[in-house]
Write a structure and sequence with these properties.
Blueprint (H helix, E strand, L loop, with lengths): L8 E5 L2 H4 L12 H6 L17 H15 L3 E5 L2 H4 L9 H16 L3 E7 L5 H5 L7 H17 L5 E6 L1 H9 L11 H24 L3 E7 L2 E4 L4 H13 L1 H8 L6 H7 L10 H5 L5 E5 L3 E4 L31 H10 L5 E5 L17 H19 L4 E7 L18 E4 L4 E4 L1 H14 L1
Parallel strand pairs: 1-2, 1-10, 2-3, 3-4, 4-5, 5-7, 6-8, 7-9, 9-10
Antiparallel strand pairs: 11-12
The chain binds 5-hydroxymethyl-3,4-dihydroxypiperidine.
């Protein structure tokens, strides 16, 4: 018998800038990712999301692709600059119309829409005012969210505010690997706080419209390299700086103290009442899970390590460690924090797919990855975790941020010359898997 309950939601996920293209059409404004990807040297391959998968024009075909997969739900994101080109003020009705048609098309096909309001494509005019370093951006996000929910909330029940704010803040404003490409720890932490504030301000607005809302956090399981207490302490600290930096404040626990001390953060941007706003009760939480990280303390030498964890045997093309079991403690933590409605909002893998002459990819490695991760989630459910759904990343190959189109996560291959979508072996496998567990 399947461990997955009858109402378990099987889905696939994408994000606006990664698939839509049509960056200049129908009144869409510029986003920080347009600016960043068009700046020489920022994207490994020199590519942009100008065309991407051309989903903006091919959305009907994509709904077909989702429908034939037999999933219950589709997670996508709304492009803020398509809906509100300046980031504040006037709405672009043509942009809203696009998502309106998409939602109706999904519902007609019996697929439940799970939109995310922010998957990294901030309107460039807001960046000119400081972007996420500017507290006003948080207010702007709440206004934008309300405008979208006012239009779609009669048909969309479940919303996500932010996708992976760690990436927006730390990769975008601290490491410079993502748009807008700024650097400095202080910048990253300021951006993180304003992102969290944006989430907290948007939550009651969305709930007041009668909808459910949550946030999507990325978490890796931090595996100590050995039984040595120093490795354990290093893993705990890394965990605080990554997943818990966002999970704890959202859950009413404030910022993790050891990480605050380690950063030497003065918290000057945290105003009175902010932490209460950020802790606004949410209806569900999304976990994006890809890998574990093996953490070694640099305070001890190799000879001091006993009971060493074996070196990882398996990696994806991103260089991420394949470790399905790592999802279980993360899910148990979410349960222990009091969450009863948990979604795996992303999980999947990039592999060096090799198409045959017809473009077909026999991606057994991806099938094995998914199969083992589904088993791990089933185990977490057996242990009493309220996992309600699983969205595979991704429906189709797409623009993988700083890596351009060089990394492929799709269940369907995209031929970037013709923009044809060609289902891979994993697409058929996932379809059959869903049928088998739903029987
Ligand atoms: O492609 C990304 C997605 O946009 C956010 N989560 C991780 C994926 C793979 O890197």
């Amino acid at each position: 018998m399947s461990a997955f309950p009858d109402d378990f939601v099987w889905g696939v996920a994408t994000a606006s800038y990664q698939i839509e293209g049509a960056v200049d059409e129908d009144g869409r404004g510029e986003s920080i990712w347009d600016r960043f990807s068009q700046t020489p040297g920022k994207i490994l391959t020199g590519e942009t999301g100008d065309v991407a998968c051309d989903h903006y024009h091919r959305w009907r075909e994509d709904i077909e692709l989702i429908n034939e997969l037999g999933v219950d739900a589709y997670r996508f994101s709304i492009a803020w600059p398509r809906v509100m080109p300046d980031g504040v003020g006037e709405l672009n009705q043509a942009g809203l119309d696009f998502y309106d048609r998409l939602v109706d098309g999904l519902l007609d096909a019996g697929i439940t829409p799970y939109p995310t309001l922010y998957h990294w494509d901030l309107p460039q005019p807001l960046e000119e005012e400081g972007g996420w370093l500017n507290r006003n951006t948080a207010e702007a996000f709440a206004d934008y969210s309300q405008a979208v929910v006012d239009r779609l909330g009669d048909r969309v029940e479940r919303w996500m505010t932010l996708n992976e704010p760690w990436c927006s803040a730390l990769l975008g404003y601290s490491a410079g690997h993502h748009a807008p490409g700024l650097t400095g720890t202080e910048n990253g932490l300021t951006a993180a706080h304003h992102l969290l504030l944006a989430h907290g301000l948007a939550v009651p607005r969305i709930q007041d419209a009668g909808c459910d809302v949550g946030i999507v956090l990325n978490m890796d399981f931090m595996q100590p390299a050995s039984a040595h207490p120093a490795d354990h302490a290093a893993a705990d600290l890394e965990d605080e700086k990554f997943g818990r930096w966002f999970l704890d404040p959202v859950s009413g626990r404030g910022y993790p103290e050891e990480a605050v001390a380690d950063y030497g953060w003065d918290m000057a941007v945290v105003r009175e009442g902010d932490l209460d706003v950020i802790a606004a009760p949410i209806d569900h939480v999304g976990l994006n899970y890809y890998a574990i990280r093996i953490i070694r303390s640099d305070l001890i030498s190799e000879t001091e390590r006993t009971e060493v964890v074996p070196a990882p045997a398996e990696y994806t093309e991103m260089g991420w460690v394949v470790a399905p079991q790592g999802i279980v403690p993360l899910l148990e933590r979410l349960r222990d924090y009091g969450y009863e409605q948990i979604y795996i909002t992303e999980s999947g893998a990039a592999y060096p797919d090799e198409p045959d002459e017809r473009g077909y990819v026999d991606d057994q490695a991806r099938i094995s990855y998914l199969d083992r991760h589904f088993d791990a989630v089933a185990e977490a459910i057996d242990r009493g975790v309220g996992v309600k759904g699983y969205f595979v990343w991704s429906l189709m190959d797409n623009f993988e941020w700083g890596f351009g189109y060089s990394k492929r996560f799709g269940l369907a291959r995209v031929d970037y010359e013709t923009l044809e979508r060609i289902p891979k072996a994993s697409y058929g496998w996932y379809r059959d898997y869903i049928r088998s567990v739903q029987r």
